[in-house]
Amino acid sequence: MSFDALAAQMADADEGPLSGIPYADTLGAEYRIEGDQVTLIVPYRKSLVGSPQPPRLHGGAVAGLMELAAIAQVIHQFRQEDMLPGVLPINVTVDYLRAGQTETVYAAARIVRMGRRVANVQVEAWQDERERPIAAAHMNVMLRR
Amino acid sequence: MLNKMMKPVVEHFMSHVPHVRALGIEFSGLGRDWAELTLPWSPHIVGYPGENGEKGVIASGAIFTLMDSVGGFSVHAARRSAAGHATLDLRLDYLRPARPGETVFGYSKVQRMTKSVAFVRGYAHDGEREDPLALMTGCFMFTKGAKS
């Protein structure tokens, strides 16, 4: 599964939409690159709400955003290389730490180990304060070279 | 039948959950400790676009939302109540990509409930239960109107 369109976009601009991923559009996700770090940003929109009373973000939307953050960070890591490997999620574990409020949500990933075939990635999602994450995820990503 | 009785109730409930509606998740079935929802294929939930105009593969994040939702519904079923709960953690193993164009079914069953926690197991498939595309393990905590 190739993310060549997204890789090309990220090589071209330090911020923008996640090109070529319709699901990312559905979430309204954008990326921002600062040096080695990619941060994904999803401004609040009503279609992200998972429980109506009181309105809270759907945990699945937050998880989906964190998976995208992991994939975007892996792609960014390969920016100097000639070939982008295929990137496939093997598994993901999400811990929900706080209820998602009706505000902008951010997600950023840290690659714990980049192996030849598997990347081990930690992701956090937060809202108003980076130090108060709303969710943390651990993901294994298959790399097909 | 429980399913016939519950279908309109659950569909009404689901119609008030914007993100469930946004992805196109639908009611499929409900039992004493289990629930099943479907995620029909549609272009706006694709994570890996197909080549040369072919249908793409549904994003794993959309399948995560399906499984989180169905896990929650199975907890409602087991508690026989719409009382609140929050996902504590949820793990998915993505065994294989979903087949482009096929509806994904998400099934979840409550294995055990304590006073405050429900332990669930589930799977996603796209037509054959014996050939799942994802396995789920999750934990839901009862909130009793707690704020977060």
UniProtKB/TrEMBL annotation, chain A:
GO terms for molecular function: thiolester hydrolase activity. Residues 56-138 form the Acyl-CoA thioesterase-like N-terminal HotDog domain. Gene3D superfamilies: Hotdog Thioesterase. This is Acyl-CoA thioesterase-like N-terminal HotDog domain-containing protein.
Automatic annotation (TrEMBL), chain B:
One of its GO terms (molecular function) is 1,4-dihydroxy-2-naphthoyl-CoA thioesterase activity. CDD domains: PaaI_thioesterase. Keywords: Hydrolase. One of its GO terms (cellular component) is cytosol. The keyword Hydrolase applies. It comes from the Bacteria. Residues 56-130 form the Thioesterase domain. This is Thioesterase domain-containing protein. It comes from Pacificimonas flava.
